[in-house]
Specification:
heterodimer, A: mainly beta, Immunoglobulin-like, three-stranded antiparallel beta sheet, B: mainly alpha, Cytochrome Bc1 Complex, Chain D, domain 2, two-stranded antiparallel ribbon, 12 helices
Chain lengths: 106, 277
């Protein structure tokens, strides 16, 4: 289980702009650094971060080796309907992490 | 020309009346204000933590538990607290129970003296003593994520509490050694800790504000490290920066400096696990 911290409102008014903040524990190893044995440490980054709201994609980000370890992403979206927001990170070495948040829209 | 005795300050009040205050009386009043402000400056605590020296954006990052990356490690530490380990098959929680109760204020008291033969230890050292003695598990590697996660979790339970180093006489010698190291010039740059953190605190070293060096936030998530680090790592960083030869990992010098610095920060609020630039 990946170590994730997500900050999203539990409730929102329809049409409101809400902020969703997501932090995930990941080394974001660049693939350019030599290890203690002199060999290059293989790249290990989160490549893709996708957020869907009731299955509809509302945010997508492609990450690069230049992004720091434990990436923190914050974005805004408009609250349209009650439902589940699914945050999904995927990357090198088969890394996949998923986090679900229920938001009630009134 | 009048003598000093009749010298006075004169002005016309909005009502049109001429107002006059003899300078002697004005002098007494000003001297009173001066003395009061001097007394305030002397009684007021001029110490500032690294948190107070940071910009508002970083302060917000630390204060928000879902934006502070150290909280990721706290989650790992909370899981480790409840996990059984070692030949004794015991978890931290089996002895200490709820950390929110049993660990409240603990981080504010370290370094402290552990029962013989261990002697003075810092919080990480205490955690490893518990592991080897009570859990009969191998000690966690210094500066490893596992050890820092546990220490971050324990430190969080003391957030906001004043630093309260114990009055153990066994710590006095250690603090004296720490103070000596703090004030001694070393390295190719021939600097002491005090040259920056006492003499030039609040000024800038390149773009960064030099803090007063109060260890209120350890273990810290340092953005430059992109990782959680202990005070020993921070000290090593400074020693290398002075182009001095760093002490061996786990050396008494780090513990001595930590004991002195915690004593120097006595009464300041613990804000760890903190974020620092």
């Amino acid at each position: 289980m990946a170590n994730v911290l997500v900050n999203a409102p539990k409730t929102a008014k329809k049409g409101d702009t809400i902020e969703i903040k997501a932090l995930i524990m990941h080394p974001m190893e660049t693939g350019f650094r030599p290890g203690t044995n002199g060999r290059i440490i293989p790249r290990n980054i989160v490549e893709d971060f996708t957020v869907t709201w009731n299955g509809r994609e509302i945010f997508r980000m492609r990450m690069s080796p230049a992004i720091a370890a434990n990436p923190f992403v914050s974005f805004f979206t408009v609250a349209s309907e009650s439902g589940t927001v699914v945050l999904r990170w995927s990357g090198d070495e088969g890394f996949v992490a998923e986090h679900r948040v229920a938001i009630a829209v009134t | 020309m009048s003598s000093a005795g009749d010298a006075a300050l004169e002005w016309r009040a909005p009502s049109g009346r001429l107002r006059r205050i003899p300078l002697v009386r004005l002098g007494f009043a000003l001297a009173g204000v001066f003395c009061a402000s001097l007394a305030l400056a002397q009684s007021g605590d001029l110490r500032r933590s690294g948190y107070q020296e940071m910009g508002p954006a970083l302060q917000k990052m630390q204060d928000d538990d879902t934006a502070n990356p150290a909280m990721l490690f706290v989650q790992v530490g909370a899981a480790a607290w409840a996990a059984k380990a070692g030949a004794a098959g015991k978890s931290c929680a089996d002895c200490h129970g709820d950390a929110a109760v049993s660990m409240k204020g603990v981080a504010a008291r370290y370094p402290a003296v552990a029962p013989a033969p261990a002697g003075p230890v810092d919080l990480e050292g205490r955690i490893n003593l518990c592991r080897t003695v009570h859990q009969q598990a191998p000690a966690l590697v210094a500066e490893s994520d596992d050890l820092l996660a546990l220490s971050a979790f324990v430190t969080l339970q003391s957030r906001g509490l004043p630093i309260a180093p114990p009055d153990d006489p066994a710590l006095a010698a250690l603090r004296a050694q720490g103070r000596d190291l703090y004030e001694r010039r070393q390295g190719q740059l021939n600097l002491s800790c005090a040259n920056c953190h006492d003499d030039n605190a609040g000024h800038r070293l390149a773009g960064a504000v030099i803090p007063q060096g109060h260890p209120t936030g350890y273990p810290i998530y340092r953005l430059e490290w992109q990782a959680l680090g202990s005070i020993a790592r921070r000290l090593r960083n400074c020693v290398v920066g002075m182009r001095a030869e760093p002490w061996q990992p786990g050396a008494t010098e780090y513990l001595a400096l930590e004991a002195y610095l915690m004593d120097r920060a006595r009464g300041m609020a613990l804000d760890g696990p903190g974020v620092r630039p």
